[in-house]
Amino acid sequence: MSKKSIRFYKDHEVRAIWDEEQSQWWFSIVDIVAAVTESPNPRKYWSVLKTRLKKAGNELTTRCSQLKMTAADGKRYATDCFAQDDIIKMIRVIPSPKTADFLDWFVYSDNTIDGQSKKKAYTLIESEVLETMKPGTVKCLQQIHAFLFGGLYDFAGKIRTKTISKGNTIFCLAEHLHAFLQSVEQMPQTNFDEIVDKYVEMNMAHPFMEGNGRSTRIWLDLILKKQLGLCVDWSKIGKSDYLNAMIESEMNSSRIHELLHNALTDRIDDREIFMKGIDYSYYYEQEE
To answer: b/e for 187-197, b at 16 or more Cβ within 10 A?
Structure first.
């Protein structure tokens, strides 16, 4: 069980681990209890609930497996987990007004464009496709975008021809986009600061109609990996900190430089770092 995932339900982490033999995900019930009940001590809450269910003769408790999962302190602990079908049954016995909303998210989230794209991102990271790309080029970014969103958007991998904006930010005007992308591609990438400057400019370009952030973060990690032997541990950067720093980078990029620098790691061949990075990258894009 080496494939791990962190999904997010309204800012609550829900850890999961893949069972290759049975071809299914196992989910941490303590994480789900925390998300649904917002108990100050979800582990104790689950312990009491489990005891009550056992006394009531609920057979679901016999289907619980203890699997080692990484906790907030970076250490691995045995954690009570249930397979997806049993989670659906278990969530219904947790007394909370949030259970219906959680079930809707849990059952259907993987069928959304983001859910399908995220699966493609996992596949991309596990494949050797990235090794064939030229880091820092526009073509490389287009290839990443096409892989993530192929079959989901008809513009996958295609440079936009319309001007787009987000909030108060207007990205590069469509009529100037190709020239701007060429200038970004020519920017140096020999050290950390140069690479982040290039990343910031590519973000301002926003070359695609949708899916820019998710594609460009993989693009950034590929440059860092190839040029410096480093990558970003995105789990060390909070969602609001990241989004605010990127908005601020239009005028001052010092904050995003600081956040990325503090999250650098040399664990470039650590599968968990990249899988976790995908989870956080997609989490950044979730609307509240």
So the answer is: eebeebeebbb
pLDDT in tens, the chain (288 residues): 456 677 788 778 888 887 777 767 889 999 999 999 988 999 999 999 999 999 988 888 889 999 988 887 888 889 999 988 898 888 888 888 888 888 877 775 566 788 889 888 988 887 888 999 999 999 999 999 999 999 999 999 999 999 999 888 899 999 999 999 999 999 999 999 999 999 999 999 999 999 999 999 999 999 999 999 999 999 899 999 999 999 999 999 999 999 999 999 999 988 778 888 998 999 899 875
Q: What is the pTM of this model?
A: 0.74
- Cα–Cα distance measured from residue 201 to residue 94, given in angstroms and rounded to the nearest whole number: 47
Please identify which residue in the block is written with the tokens 């060390």.
236
CA distance 172 to 212: 13
CB proximity list for 236: less than 8 A, separation 6 or greater: 262, 263
Residue with structure tokens 């009531």?
A: 56
Q: Say if residues 134 and 145 touch (Cβ distance below 8 Å).
A: no
Helices 113-126 and 212-228: crossing angle in degrees, nearest 10, is 10
Chain position carrying tokens 């968990």: 272
Which of 264, 216, 213 shows the shortest CA–CA distance to 237? 264
Distance CA 26, CA 44 (A): 20
Given the structure tokens 């904050």, which residue do they identify?
255
Angle of CA points 130, 131, 132, to nearest 5°: 90
Q: In whole angstroms, what is the distance from residue 125 CA to residue 18 CA?
A: 16
Give the list of residues 6+ apart from residue 244 with CB closer than 8 angstroms, or none. Answer: 255
Task: Give dist(CA 35, CA 101) in Å, integer.
Answer: 11
- Shortest CA distance to 189 belongs to which of 248, 131, 140? 140
CA distance 258 to 245: 9
